[in-house]
From TrEMBL:
Name of this protein: Alanine racemase
Organism field: Stutzerimonas degradans
Biological process according to GO: D-alanine biosynthetic process
Catalytic EC class: isomerase
Family: Belongs to the alanine racemase family.
Length: 359
């Protein structure tokens, strides 16, 4: 078997969920498990959290089906609502909560014949300009949906654009827009993603919606997951599958971009960009072998990457190589590649087996 595995620590996941709730005492928390639980496996993540989580949030009906099969009684929120009129019927069968973000979805909902009313989360565009009503549009929609047979709870939801940048002026202005609607007497309100859970208590409202923090990564550029008390959930581990000596002046890998400046010992690791390790990782990026950091040497290939073992003479064929995890924080790798932990986690591909610990 190819030695590459993504180990998912479900005990750490639960710790992170409970930390999110501790940040917002008395509030409820939708665990955001869209995109296959940010790459960790929706079924396993939902199963591990279902006895502690107040609910789950997903991006679409297909994802909700997986969550409902794993958590028959959980509250499940469709964050973008339904994409076609026929989906409302299925949403009602599955007892989902649905976002309603525009007039088209409002019309579809009011035209639908449902076996039971749906809890609706009316989405306000408070400044992100991605989805949602204007303040006035939301008032109109509220008037139309209030008392409709298809509607159970009538709730308010919005989303921050810059909660990961503390002190950003948009945070205050989004809160202000949101506040303008609070006199409409909603059953529940929700605004906070992980960054707001961690640093904007005034945005906590009735329901928080932590995503990335559950998986032990930070939403912030300047505050690490460790500083926030988060535990890494996924560890990506490959192995040394070849080792060779490379003389001064010889190159390693595609494009011959890395050239030995000293007699070098080069290891080949069983992980590449087709597994989700970023091709943009530059030479010098750290992996950990036997507890010691060693640098990438040359370009990442589809199935393999090379590391410079010269300063780790005890490294041997078969040694485990941590690509990210407790010793190589995913956020550190993401920063080195000009991206964010979210992208790396969600891009671990299907050919990498997931192994689950704890839970
Ligand atoms: C509407 C909504 N709420 C909550 C989240 C969770 O955000 P985060 O992963 O930053 O906590 C997301 C994720 O993008 C989202 O789209």
């Amino acid at each position: 078997m190819r030695p590459l595995v993504a180990t998912v620590d479900l005990t750490a996941l639960r710790h992170n969920y409970l930390l999110a709730r501790q940040c917002a005492p008395q509030r409820k928390a939708f665990a955001v498990v869209k995109a296959n639980a940010y790459g960790h496996g929706a079924h396993e993540v939902v199963t591990a959290l279902r006895d502690v989580a107040d609910g789950f949030a997903v991006a679409c009906l297909e994802e909700a089906e997986v969550v409902r099969a794993s958590a028959p009684d959980a509250r499940i929120l469709l964050l973008e609502g339904c994409f076609e009129p026929c989906e409302y019927r299925r949403a009602a069968e599955l007892s989902l909560d649905v976002a309603v973000q525009d007039l088209r979805q409002t019309d579809w909902l009011l035209d639908a014949e449902l076996e039971r009313p749906l809890n609706v989360w009316m989405k306000l565009d408070s400044g992100m300009h991605r989805l949602g009503f204007t303040v006035d549009g939301l008032r109109d929609c509220h008037a139309r949906l209030k008392g409709a047979a298809q509607v159970g709870e009538l709730n308010l939801i919005s989303h921050f654009a810059c909660a990961d940048e503390r002190g950003h002026s948009l945070n205050e202005s989004q809160l202000e827009f949101y506040g303008q609607l609070l006199e409409l007497a909603f059953d529940n309100c929700s605004l906070a993603n992980s960054a707001a859970v961690l640093t904007l208590p005034q945005a906590h409202m009735a329901w928080i919606r932590p995503g990335i923090m559950l998986y032990g990564a930070t939403p912030f550029a300047t505050l690490s997951a460790q500083e926030l008390g988060l535990k890494p959930v996924m560890t990506l581990t490959g192995a040394l599958i070849a080792i060779r000596d490379v003389p001064v002046g010889d190159s390693v890998g595609y494009g011959a971009s890395w050239v030995a400046q000293r007699p070098s010992r080069i290891g080949t690791v069983s992980c590449g960009y087709a597994d989700g390790y970023p091709r943009s990782a530059p030479s010098g990026t750290s992996v950990v072998i036997r507890g010691q950091r060693v640098p990438l040497a040359g370009r990442v290939s589809m199935d393999m990457l090379a590391v410079d073992l010269t300063d780790l003479p005890q490294a041997q064929l078969g040694d485990a190589v941590e690509l990210w995890g407790a010793q190589v924080p995913i956020d550190e790798l993401a920063t080195a590649c000009g991206t964010i932990g979210y992208e790396l986690l969600t891009k671990v591909t299907g050919r990498v087996p997931r192994r689950y610990l704890g839970g």
